[in-house]
Amino acid sequence: MLEVTPASAGWSNVGFAVVEVTPSAPWSAVLADRETVVVVLEGEGTIRGGVVDTVLARRSVFEEMGRAVYFPPGTEYTIETTSRLVVAVGSAPATGVLPTRVIEPTEMRSEIRGGGQSYRQVVHTLSAPLPAEHLIVYEVYVPRGTWAGWPPHRHDGVDGAPYLEETYYFRLDRPEGYVLHRNFCDGRGPAADGSDDVFDEVAVAHDGDVVCVPMGYHTSVVSPGSNMYFLNVLAGDLLLDERATPPCFHADHVWITDDWTAGQWDLPVVGPR
């Protein structure tokens, strides 16, 4: 099992796991003070908890959208299968003001964002107005050789940005490919003493890896031979409908959103005199 806990990440809100369920290894959980979302990734099985007793099924994340199930704190749930089922499980602190519910793909808004070399499909698996206390979930589809999350953006409580912790779970349709994911601060970080004003890390992620975003601006690019899917789980200070609040974008790079092809070269650029 792939797992990120608040303790292992060094933060307070987001928990994330990828769980493989088999006939000999069903999955059960209950979190007393955290809301939970279960997103089907691949396979078929049954999920039961609260008022929910339903089937989860998806050929793969690359072929179709899938259902999700939301559980408020204190709800015990069980996932079983007669074959194989892989699910992602996200959680965040909550008080329990919302009921258990199944979220159907037809409820999930899908949009095309960006342009040029930053062009992707964003599926709003669990974002406002779909109800949750703090959890936000997106599934993103990025063509090979393309950037995601451009311009670089932040949501770490700095310069008026909301505070949200975030995990990126990457899948590639050709697993020999890889992703470069950058987290950075180049002006002011969230630490009051200025110790993280300059912070820069680049993670190399492969198919099935997860990367944490603890602070700063961030963006990702996939290698030219693989198409990329990633699942984002976010949570922090935003509550209920406030979860629609956008991040803050890096001022040096927002110009491109006016015209994604401005200044783009057509080859060849130079030749002999």
Could you please describe the fold and organization of this structure?
- The chain has one domain (2-245): Jelly Rolls (Sandwich), CATH 2.60.120.10.
- Helices cover 1% and strands 48% of the residues.
- It has one helix and 20 strands.
- The protein has one helix spanning 6-9, and strands spanning 2-4, 15-21, 27-29, 34-49, 52-58, 68-71, 77-80, 85-93, 101-103, 110-115, 118-126, 136-142, 147-154, 164-172, 179-186, 198-205, 210-213, 217-222, 228-236, 248-249.
- The strands form three sheets. Strands 1, 2, 3, 4, 5, 6, 7, 8 and 9 form a nine-stranded antiparallel beta sheet that branches.
- The protein is globular and about 75 Å long.
- The model has no long low-confidence stretch (mean pLDDT 96).
Provide the fold topology.
Elements: E1 2-4, H1 6-9, E2 15-21, E3 27-29, E4 34-49, E5 52-58, E6 68-71, E7 77-80, E8 85-93, E9 101-103, E10 110-115, E11 118-126, E12 136-142, E13 147-154, E14 164-172, E15 179-186, E16 198-205, E17 210-213, E18 217-222, E19 228-236, E20 248-249
Antiparallel strand pairs: 1-2, 2-8, 3-7, 4-5, 4-6, 4-7, 4-8, 6-9, 10-11, 11-12, 12-19, 13-18, 13-20, 14-17, 14-19, 15-16, 15-18
